[in-house]
Each structure stands twice: as C-alpha cells, then as structure tokens.
Amino acid sequence: MPKIDNKVIQNRDQIIKDLGKFISKENILSHQDEIKPYETDGLTAYKQKPLIVILPETTKEVSKVLSYCNKNNIKVVPRGAGTGLSGGALPSADCVLLSLGKFNKILEIDFKNRCVVAQTGVTNLAITQAVQDNNFYYAPDPSSQIACSIGGNVAENSGGVHSLKYGTTTNNILGLKIVLMDGTITTIGGKVFDSPGYDLLGLITGSEGLLCIITEVTAKILQKPDTIKAALLGFPTIEDSGNCVGEIIAEGIIPAGMEIMDKALTHATEKFSKAGYPLDAEAMMIVELDGTDLEVTELLKKVAEIGKKNNCTTVKISNSEEERLKFWSGRKAAFPACAALAPDYFCMDGTIPRGKLAEVLREITRLSKEYNLPVANAFHAGDGNLHPLIMFDANDQQSLEKAEKFGADILKYCVKVGGVLTGEHGVGIEKRELMCEMFNQNDIQQQLDIKIALDPSSLLNPGKVYPILRKCAEQGRIHVHGAKEKFSDIPRF
Amino acid sequence: MELKRNSQTFQDFNSTILKPSNEEQVQQIIRYCYKNNLSIEIIGTGSKKGIGKNLQCKKILDMSNISGIINYKPDELYITVKASTPINSIQDELKKNNQHLAFEPVNFEKIFEKDSKEGTIAGALSCNFSGSRRFKVGSARDHILGFKGYNGKGEKIKSGGTVQKNVTGYDLSKLITGSFGTLVVLTEITLKVLPLESDTKTIVISGLPLEDSLEIMGSALNSSNDPSGAVFYPENFRNSFTFNDLAYPGSITAIRLEGTSGSVDQRIKNFYNQWSLNEKKTTILDKTQSVIFWEDTRSLKVFSNTDKSLLRVVVPPSETTNLISRLRLFHANCFLDWGGSLVWLELDYLSSEKIDQIRKRVLDVGGYLTVIKSKQNLKDSTEVFTVNPIEFRISQNIKKSFDPKRIFNPGRMYRGI
Q1: Fold assignment, A227-332
Q2: ipTM over 0.90
C-alpha cells in the first residue's frame, strides 16, 4: 500500500474537528470499536482500520469533505455496502473512510422513461423490488444483490449470471451524479442514451472508486419477460459440456443464463442443497431461457437436442417456477458448500474464451495435484467467467502460501489462453500485482495518466488496481476462513 | 512505389496526406508529428468527415490501408479487425455465420460521401451513432470488447480483450468510442457479435398523429413483447417507402419484432390484442420488406442527398411531444427513432442563433443536440456537440492524458480539445 502519511495520523483530532464543520458529529466515527467494522470488505484476508469513518448524508457534504481532504492531502477511501471481493474498500491507516451507507433512498421511479434514480447506497435488489409490481426489473444481478449497493455495482461494473444476454452494470445505467476529489459536483448522462462527448459514464463504471465518488445512479429498468424456464444437463466429460455451449451459441441461441459446475462442485452443492443434480456427471450445466412461452419452449427443445448430440446423460426441463428455482438452488449454494469442505477457500475470478474451458480445467486439475490442494470449479459459461474455488487451511502457513501461488497460476493461465484477470470481482488490491500479466508499461501508464487527470494528487482510493512497484507478485484470490466469509448470509455464485 | 509500400519504414513525411501501409508506419507517423508539433486529421473512407467542427490540420493521416479481418470466432461471439475495415465487409463476413453487428451503425453515405462504402468500423466507433435497435441491444460502445492503437505520443496502447466479461482496469474501450478520433489512432478493434434473428417482421400503423404514435411506441417499449425498433415518419415522408404490402397513406408508425418465427407471430398477435390494432390501418411487413425498411432507416434514406442542415436530437421519451411542439416554429422536417427518444431534424435555414435556440429547448427537457450537417457552414461559429463546463474541463484533462500536444483532430469536438 502507499506510504503512510504520519502527519495526517498525528493531526487526527484536528481533522475530526474540521470535518465536524461539514457533517454532523454523529456521522463521524472515530472510536476504535466504531471503526472496526470498516477494517475490511468481502476480501477478509486483508484488514486495516482507517483513521476515521464518516457517513455523509448529502452530495454537498461529500463535496465539502473531498474538497477539505484534497486541500489537506488526506487520502479518502470510498465504501458502499462493503461486499466487494477484491479489497477495493480496504482502508489505509491514514485515510478517511467515506461510507455511502446513508445514501439509501430511491429518488424517482420513472416508468415512462424506463429508469430509476437511486442514491448510491440503495441495494441492487431494492431497485428491482421498487418496480416489480409494474412488471419491471433491473437486469444486472450480482450474487450479493440483497446487500451490495448500486454505487458499488457501478464502481466494480458488476455482472451476474445473466450478463451474456443483458450485459453488466455499464450497459444498464444512464446517468450518474458524481463528486470529484476537488469537491466539484457534476452529473454525467441523464435519462437519455449515449450522451455526447467522452463516455465518462463508461470510464467511471468499473473504475473501482479511483476517479470520483458516486452519489446518485440513474439505472435503466426492463420489462420482465413473459416466461422463464431452465434446463439441467449432465455430461460425461467437461469437453462435452464445453462443446455443447459452443453449439448452443452457434445455433444462434443466446440464453439468459448458462452455468457449468464440475463434478467436485456438483457433489459439494448436492450435499448442501439437495437440488437433484446428476452425481454421475463430470460436468453439470444449467441453461436458462426467457421470452415468450412459445419461443422458450422451442429453444429449450433445441438446447436438449444439442445436449444429447454432445452425449449428455441427463436432461431435465423445469416445469414450474419452483422447479426452476430448485435447479438454481445448488448453484447458488456453491460457495457455502465449499466452505463446508475445507477450513478456508479462495474464490478466483478469471474470464477465458469459452472454447478453452476444457483446457483450462485440465490445467487447474494438474495444478491441484501439483500443489496438493483440492479445487472445485463454477463457470458462467455464457460469458466465459470462471470461478475456481481453492480449498486450503490458512492456519497452516505452507498451505496458505501454496493456495496463493495456485491462485496466481490459474489467473496467469487464464491470460495465457486469451482471457483476463477478472470478469466481475474487480482488481482492487487482490489482483493488483498481476496487472502486468495483461498490460505492459505503456498500457498501465496510460491508465495512471487518466487517474491523474481526474485526481491529480492520487488521494482517492490509493493503492488499488494498479501495481505499486509494477512488480508481479503471487497474489489473487478471495480468502474465506472457517466458513466465516464476510457477510456469509449473502449468496455468492 | 511498390517498394515503398512494402517497406517497414515510412518515408514520405513531406506529403500532406500520409498513408501508412501497416501499424509500424502508423506509429512512425504519429511520432514524427508529435516531435514536430504537427496536427493530424485522421480519416478512414471519409463517410463521416462532415461531422464535427472543421479541421485545419497540417497533415492528413489516411488510415484506409489498415484494413482486414484479423480473427473471427463465431463460437466466442467476437471478431477482431483492423481499424479501417469497411463495415459492410465485416457484416458480409458475419452473415456467413448468421451473425451481425447488432448495434446497426448509422450509415451516412447518403448524406456525405456516396463512395465511402458506409465507412469503416473505426469511424463508426469514433462517432458512436447507433441505429434503431439501440434501446434493446445498446450502441457501438456496448459492443466494443477491446482495442489497440496509438496515443498522441505514438505509444502503443491497448485495453480490454476478446472476452465478453472483463473488469480488468479502466474501460478505455468505452472512452475512445464517441471520441471522434481525438484520443487514440485505432489500429485494431475487437467487437462483440450476435446471432441474426431467424425471423423479422414489422407492424406498420398508418395515419397516426404524432401523439398517438408516441403513445403506442412507448407502450410497445414498456411491454414484454420485446420490440427491436420503433420509428415514426410523418406523412410527408410516406412516399419515400414503397412496399408491396404497404397500402395505406399517411404517417408511418413502425414496430419491429425479431426472434423465432413462432415467437414473432405470437408477439404480433399480442400487439394486435393489446392496442386493438384491427381497428386501425395496419400492415405487416414480412422479413424481406422489413430488412429493407430498417436499412432505409439506418441510412437516413428520407434525407438522401439533402442540401439542407441536419440535427440529431436525443431527449427522454416522455419529453418528445413537448419538444416537437416547441420546435414547430422552426419548420423542420423530422422523423423519430428509438421509440421517440431520437429525433432527426432537417432544416432549410440554420443560423448559430437558431441552433442555440433549439439547443436551449432540448437542454430544457434533459436532452442533447448534435449538428450533423450545416448548410451554411456554421461549424466554426457554433458548438457542434452539447457539453457542460465541468464535463468540458474533465474532457480537457483526459485529452491531455492521451494526446498532450493536441495533435489528433484538434478542435473537431470542441475548441480546446
């Protein structure tokens, strides 16, 4: 992490006093017990208490705080719901942690323009809940959607299981209200598509809190499809399941969701959720289709035919909403199921070309033997996003180090086959040192220059995303200990 | 000459028009211009050269040789091409596998350059003007997965990749889309491709007044019938469309449905029931006629060879009626796309004052305006795009981070950028 500014730490009392001029005193947390909950996010391997925590309530307050911190050279780390999996909200000892938890109101529901204007701390699911009575929903559905905030979704460009068909956050928002590090407040976009000029909406989405603080989001809402059904398919080999995915897409079918689990994960989740998965299968796949009933029925028939052509041994089609949700129940229990198998696990997050699935899984199996650590794999097959879950025991230093190396090797292999380091969890501090696997000096320098263009003193969320010494290290994972994942009640998949 | 073309080293720096044969030469030219403080106008086939402010650059960088398909993976839903690959040759290649660029880039060849073959993919991305499917599938910026190119210092940079889901670093692909060649000279682009739907039909409702048309289009977009196009042409454009099945006179309200044959028919039935369309003058265009109709819309056929001025206005759908009534005094010809959110305006006489008056009305309702073509060549005296002062300041800083000497298309978007 960047060098700690001891002067700021020594000035703590004065900073608290100064900030008290802009925001009410009860919204400034400084006692060690009060700030402890903010020492980490969903990546619990890293912990650090911030200097203080503030909870502003208005955009103007955010502006005043940032302006003050900018003038006094104080680092600011923004935080939404704290569910991020790459350490993006990890504080430093000399930072003001700016929590957006009090920005929790939906400001406007506009069916005519098909959008919702929400404050940044509103949860992802709350947006859908606000419009579902009118048969609308907000499409991106990260697994933590009951808790994660819409502002955090923008910061990470969150996806979900339906992103092949419906896109990620960047494809589903229209506007933002933001505050720059110097305190400038502005709006980007609005209720219209493709605002002119540089696509600042696209730049800010996925910028992991490094460029500005988001206080309001205008999210696009969609009409719910008439019919949603799913098929459950079991395959004798990973190759067969991979070929089936390729053929479904070649047939011109874009499923709403397409998920594969390997045998290890199928067994783990079946024990956990009793979803009725085929235990003899080496790979299990859920294909979800939506649209008109005629279209869904027609396409599911084709999916089943393609599955059979690719040697699938089990085909089940959901006959009710209850059955469809049952198909998903095991998949959604994948992470807790792994937590029950080993004291700790790392969840990796790489994206690979779909056609390389079998090759990458073979390499993961080889590495698993080499490192002597078990692994289970979940795969968003539609968009190529792979989540290997490496099981280990963090109390054993050797096991922890091996797991770290194993994880880094997987991500490097993802890049080697034409994939990327992260599909949806973000770089944060977790994969920062692996950035040079994908980008060279010029690429990284260009990105750093953009950071300086918006935050000249690099005070906003410093130390995240870009390698500090441009040196590759062996890192990259989510750490879960003793099934005590941060917010273990939130589904992860 | 042949020898020079094959050479890795670009030699003809003294010409005004610099036409590199390969990527290395692109870099050599940019480095040369950077070192010698020479501004560069970047062109492909010139199909959209008329858009943006007038440029007075020392050099013209003609990228048309940097063309060709590098890698096409239908199963992985992406294609990687060199920057100046013509759009129609990409679409032809994709069609062989029943795929396409779903964002339907607007084809300006009927407005500007007839021989531009619809322009290049880099041009389409640089402008980010997307067609009628926008509200369903997104625009060009939603379909770019990655790029390679050179910044204003001649440094090779890249962003993104070939996979569909990627959050590794800032999304520079989006930033360069719509930047009108002011940030990066693109050399290689990877695009998301999607399957062509097996069937397409279009419901045309004839003779509706604007307000009724907007209501039906709005309801269509708010329904689960999943339309992929909704346009309104007023009566004066009726004769631009001659289809065997289109029998009725009057305005055209057209709603496109795409999908499997059964699904399209089912949704048409839903539309007829929901809006009692049997009581209205309706026509259903089959696949062949539909494809022609939407192609005509994408290429702005109703404004073919216009010698008038052309404005592109985008407003929230709820504000279209209000805006159109506030613009009546300007006597513009207009048609509506994106279910009413996109308004194309053709005006006979335009002045800077008039543009400012229209822009104010557009801004008042939360929209924006772009001057596409100005008959009176007003682009030096008025803003072509809409931008607020803070966004302008941010944009200036971003421009500086890519192109510190402002050598790429300086002033094409705004003065000072």
Answers
A1: Alpha-Beta Plaits (3.30.70)
A2: yes
